[in-house]
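Design request, tokens follow.
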């Protein structure tokens, strides 16, 4: 039981916690918890509060005074015992002493396609709860980092809402159940942490009589303090589907003097729920039905920030030692004092304190700011903090640079506090700080562009409302312009408007977004099926039966014809047409894969087609109607006629090869740069593939090489693919990768390359990886902030690429070789040669790098060393020449613009880096014998002359004319 094996390699024992304070035996804490039900006064004020001049507010809730076995403890010792780090340690030790394995927190990026982020401690154990994998231990306890953004707008407005929080939990996998879980939760609360029993209230699910009796009879809680609540409050689910069950919660009462009558556990001015016990006994299916799990499980969650608030006797979670130091840092940057600030300033500081924790831990766990999925979550939080900082008046980084970024400065404090939460954060700090700096600068530019326009629009809305006596409202069109033209986030617009008392016409905004979507579709030639009268053809055409997985040929009936958006009964030769069939072997564009090409034939005799339609694209429209776009090459096509639908076999094979290669590429990326990377888009074409993914930096050459090696290795291994159709829930449980934002039906198709990849995919694929033949990355580049793009070729396209590249290289070398000697059969490196009035020079190696001054601005020499010549693999020669020529072309263009210095320097760097392309033994021997250097010759039409300096030869950008 020392460590857990696959499939949970991350479930390893935690390192020993640093000893914060002596944690005595459970009996050391007195169970005598008699406390006044009056003002509850007493209670110390922490040192941090004293520094910030905090005082208990009038009418603030009476905080509990936990009993102590000894009155000799100093205040500092007591503070240490109730610090956030100590509470975490005491919780884990409590359950470790009761047979629970202490396990580390899982990543905030869950290995679960049904949820975006880790929202609860049970998520890493979900496969065990479902019975999909055997348990490794019967009991476990964790402190889990969690992210929830559904209440982001409540952050800072309430005392308890957060985006980032720690969930302390104890778990049973078919071991103990309700009786033991309830007793231990009570003992932990009243004995270990010394909470007064008379201040604790209990909630149970309305139909859970067993839990009610255990609380009242076994534990002894008065029935007046046990509340039965409905499904919304006391039935817990982990997501839309998955493990679930009734739950029971423990609440702390800040105002017991209000009595039992009409007590509302939802009143957060009196109560706070801090411990939730979930009796995990059902699995919620896609249709909402519940099925019993194979075993009864326990899943609990205790909010660390909430318990810290109770024990530290502060008015809200933000003023605990878990968050207050971050607020202090923001206060320093804003030059304000939290303790004496107004409510609005305190709210802003709380937002910064909360969001910065979430941001730092998300980036640490590999989430890169982007515009999709979890990347958008962190980007939105970053932007909210940047704007909030501006409202606080923060300028600069606090170190004297008024133009510097302030997020990294605050993040450093979060990293400092993270030691006991996640020790790896400190090692990842440089990357986190750099990411924050980049995002802050980028968004500040966006804010500066949009804020002025937003202020004008809001002023107009307020002025117009005053004139009309109406409620001020910002037009949806204006919100859309800010979003679409200026990149101003809609959430920020909404937040600013609400602060000014202006509502937003969200319906108008949605209409504008829909208009843009339709225009975008039209721009990309999306098929239209609406006829002139407005009647939709789709109303009269059934869904198309697709048989293209099994066959590339079938006989079908023409269900409808469309020409220029209007229905047609027949279409003659030379016309463009959209054909709707009752069934088809043609794959319609979806999932990134383009539509099939091929032909529709109407036969007159056995071997003589009466009509031919060439199909150049296939699209899906209105659900599952396949629209075949093409041109009538011969004859006449009529509705109701039978056609022979034939897919172009060679092109389909190319698409299959590239689609499977795309799956392999995603698998390789996850292996090389991390599991946190995710797909942001793709294109599967006949001649190439394109894969967009979320990542924060360009890939290194070594990483691209490793990706190619992995993929070509899988191709060489000739792995048989497996394709299955199964319920969506089963596919997710099996670990199939699903794209966030994609909508799937109840039945899904799963494509698996065993041991490599498993994805939900409706595309066409090869049956064996060996069919791919070869894979080559053509380019890697950034296309948006946090989004990279790889283009590659595979199969026939891979062979064509290699052949074309080699042909180009041979042609280039042949051309350059002819120009080197000006038609001569031999090249004498000991002489000065002339071509068309231009001169090149050779150099005696015995004299070093000396060379005569050039005669004019159009002469240039690149020296290539005869010794230490790099050995270049044949397959690298073309790429190096291509890269050199491309860089020289760019440099030449720059030279035309700036005339001299910048391009001259750049070209010199390029030339020096490109000493020699190739490895010719014959020439190398000749150079050694002649004691000279070969030359590359460049020509310039507009450069400035310069002088040569021994050992330091400047190079001017120009066009390659010749090469030895």
């Amino acid at each position: 039981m020392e460590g857990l094996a696959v499939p949970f390699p991350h479930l390893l024992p935690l390192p020993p916690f640093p000893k914060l304070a002596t944690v005595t035996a459970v009996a050391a804490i007195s169970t005598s918890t008699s406390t006044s039900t009056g003002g509850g006064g007493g209670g110390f004020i922490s040192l941090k509060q004293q520094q910030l001049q905090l005082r208990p507010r009038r009418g603030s809730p009476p905080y509990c005074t936990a009993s102590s076995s000894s009155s000799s403890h100093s205040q500092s010792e007591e503070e240490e015992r109730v610090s956030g780090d100590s509470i975490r340690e005491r919780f884990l030790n409590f359950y470790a002493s009761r047979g629970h394995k202490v396990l580390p927190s899982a990543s905030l990026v869950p290995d679960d396609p049904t949820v975006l982020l880790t929202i609860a401690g049970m998520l890493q154990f979900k496969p065990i709860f479902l019975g999909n994998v055997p348990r490794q231990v019967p009991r476990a306890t964790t402190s889990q980092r969690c992210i929830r953004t559904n209440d982001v707008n409540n952050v800072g407005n309430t005392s308890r809402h957060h985006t980032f929080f720690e969930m302390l939990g104890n778990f049973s996998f078919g071991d103990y159940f309700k009786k033991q879980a309830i007793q231990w939760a009570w003992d932990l609360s009243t004995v270990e942490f010394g909470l007064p029993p008379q201040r604790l209230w209990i909630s149970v699910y309305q139909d859970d009589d067993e839990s009610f009796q255990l609380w009242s009879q076994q534990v002894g809680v008065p029935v007046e303090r046990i509340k039965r609540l409905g499904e919304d409050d006391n039935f817990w689910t982990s997501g839309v589907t998955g493990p679930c069950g009734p739950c029971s919660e423990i609440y702390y009462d800040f105002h017991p003097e209000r009595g039992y009558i009409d007590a509302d556990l939802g009143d957060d001015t009196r109560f706070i729920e801090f411990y939730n016990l979930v009796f995990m006994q059902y699995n919620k299916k896609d249709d909402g039905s519940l099925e019993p799990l194979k075993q009864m499980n326990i899943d609990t969650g205790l909010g660390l920030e909430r318990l810290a608030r109770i024990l530290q006797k502060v008015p809200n979670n933000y003023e605990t030692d878990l968050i207050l130091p971050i607020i202090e840092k923001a206060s320093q940057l804003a030059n304000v004092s939290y303790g004496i600030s107004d409510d609005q300033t305190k709210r802003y500081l709380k937002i910064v304190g909360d969001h910065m924790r979430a941001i730092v831990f998300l980036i640490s766990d590999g989430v890169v700011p982007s515009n999709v999925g979890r990347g958008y979550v962190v980007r939105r939080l970053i932007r909210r903090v940047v704007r909030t900082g501006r409202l606080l008046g923060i300028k600069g980084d606090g170190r004297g640079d008024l133009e510097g970024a302030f997020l990294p400065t605050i993040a450093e404090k979060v990293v400092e506090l993270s030691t006991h939460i996640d020790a790896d954060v400190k090692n990842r700090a440089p990357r986190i700080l750099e990411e924050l700096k980049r995002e802050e600068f980028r968004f500040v530019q966006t804010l500066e562009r949009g804020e002025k326009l937003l202020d004008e629009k809001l002023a107009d809305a307020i002025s117009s409302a005053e004139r009309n006596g109406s409620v001020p409202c910002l037009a949806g069109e204006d919100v859309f312009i800010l979003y679409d033209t200026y990149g101003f986030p809609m959430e920020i617009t909404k937040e600013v408007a609400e602060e000014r008392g202006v509502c937003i016409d969200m319906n108008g905004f949605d209409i504008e977004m829909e208009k843009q979507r339709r225009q975008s579709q039209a721009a990309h030639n999306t098929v239209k099926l609406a006829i002139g009268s407005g009647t939709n053809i789709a109303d009269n055409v059934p869904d198309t039966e697709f048989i293209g997985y099994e066959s590339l040929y079938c006989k079908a009936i023409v269900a409808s014809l469309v020409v220029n958006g209007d229905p047609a009964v027949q279409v003659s030769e030379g016309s463009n047409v959209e054909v709707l069939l009752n069934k088809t072997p043609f794959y319609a564009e979806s999932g990134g894969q383009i539509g099939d090409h091929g032909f529709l034939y109407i036969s007159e005799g056995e071997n003589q087609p009466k009509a031919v339609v060439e199909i150049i694209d296939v699209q899906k429209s209105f659900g599952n109607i396949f629209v075949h776009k093409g041109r009538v090459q011969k004859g006449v096509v009529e509705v109701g006629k039978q056609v022979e639908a034939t897919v172009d076999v060679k092109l389909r094979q190319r698409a299959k090869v590239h689609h499977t290669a795309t799956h392999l590429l995603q698998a390789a990326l996850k292996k090389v740069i991390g599991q946190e990377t995710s797909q942001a888009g793709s294109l599967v074409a006949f001649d190439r593939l394109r894969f967009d993914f979320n990542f924060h930096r360009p890939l290194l050459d070594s990483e691209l090489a490793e990706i190619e090696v992995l993929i070509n290795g899988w191709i060489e291994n000739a792995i048989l693919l497996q394709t299955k159709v199964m319920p969506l829930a089963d596919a997710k449980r099996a670990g199939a990768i699903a794209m966030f934002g994609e909508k799937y039906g109840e039945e899904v198709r799963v494509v698996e390359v065993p041991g490599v990849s498993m994805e939900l995919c409706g595309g066409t694929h090869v049956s064996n990886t060996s069919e791919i033949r070869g894979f080559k990355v053509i380019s890697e580049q950034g296309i948006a902030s946090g989004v990279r793009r790889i283009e590659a070729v595979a199969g026939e396209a891979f062979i064509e690429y290699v052949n074309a590249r080699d042909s180009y290289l041979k042609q280039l070398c042949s051309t350059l070789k002819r120009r080197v000697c000006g038609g001569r059969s031999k090249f004498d490196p000991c002489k000065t040669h002339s071509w068309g009035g231009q001169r090149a020079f050779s150099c005696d190696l015995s004299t070093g790098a000396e060379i005569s001054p050039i005669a004019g601005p159009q002469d240039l020499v690149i020296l290539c060393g005869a010794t230490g010549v790099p050995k270049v693999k044949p397959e690298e020669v073309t790429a190096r020449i291509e890269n050199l020529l491309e860089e020289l072309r760019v440099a030449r263009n720059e030279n035309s613009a700036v005339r001299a210095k910048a391009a001259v320097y750049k070209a010199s760097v390029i030339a020096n880096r490109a000493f020699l392309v190739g490895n010719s033994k014959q020439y190398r021997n000749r150079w050694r014998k002649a004691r000279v250097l070969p030359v590359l010759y460049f020509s310039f039409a507009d450069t400035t002359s310069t002088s040569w300096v021994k050992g330091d030869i400047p190079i001017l950008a120009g066009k390659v004319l010749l090469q030895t």
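Comment from the thread starter after seeing the answer: thanks! The longest helix spans residues 424-468.
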